[in-house]
Amino acid sequence: MSTGRTDRPLAGRVAVVTGGSRGAGRGIALELGAAGATVYVTGRSTRAEPATQYGRIQALSGLDRIPGSVDDTADELTALGGRGIAARCDHTDEAQVRALFERVQAEQGRLDLLVNNAWGGHEVFSGVFDAPFWERSMDEWDAMLDRGARNHLLASRAAAPLMIARGTGLIVTTTFWDRDRFLKGNLIYDLAKATMTRLAGAMAQDLKPHGVASVAVSPGWMRTEFVLAGHRTDEDHWRERPELAGTESPRYVGRAVVALATDPAVMARSGRVWRVGDLAAEYGFTDIDGRRIPPFELGEG
């Protein structure tokens, strides 16, 4: 499962990956495609109508345009062996979210996997990574809680009945977690990610009697498009930047999601948060460069 996989363990399965234009969502969608799944790639960025909410991070990263779209990801995962379906959706809009899952049910008659990844935090990125909470803008609350954790709840509410009706399914929520350590200097981000982790665990309690699993998955420091741009490099040249030596590709978390989705005993993992590095060791997968990157850990102090 680490590289060069030729089997399609998720053939016939249907997934929705929210926030799939770039970053973790794109990496997850691509790996699901490589495993043969039909994947609805959702988000606000399309080729015809790119998202316009990322002006701050775009300027700080020196980008002429925001990379990625739901169309690009859908095409890429199709080329890898799956079936990608681009579906524009603003995940803050409950009516659009409901319509998305009604479409999935009408077109596929099933939903096996939901990956909650839509995230508004990049909309307010300021380049400041360490500041006391009284100096941080409350705009971060709106972006990270109202357009982050709430997005996950809305999608899960719409997806759960489809899975419950079949008595099986998996909801994966991407988060950040390092054994309950606080992320010093970014209280609202820390609070938002803790909320997502708690959400996944709480949903698991309600879903358990229905045979549906819910887990949170925590990647490490990913070489997303924004990280690469911020370091003035790209995926072909990142090794020239020593500070990026410990990073992982977004497809590493994708391989973790595939491992969970193909695990017949995944219910035993429901209700908990799992670090990608730990899952790699347990399931035996590697990143795209063959490395098995250990779990990301916060420094002391």
TrEMBL record:
Gene3D superfamilies: NAD(P)-binding Rossmann-like Domain (3.40.50.720). It holds the Pfam family adh_short_C2. InterPro entries: NAD(P)-bd_dom_sf (IPR036291), SDR_fam (IPR002347). It comes from the Bacteria. This is Oxidoreductase. It comes from Roseateles chitinivorans.
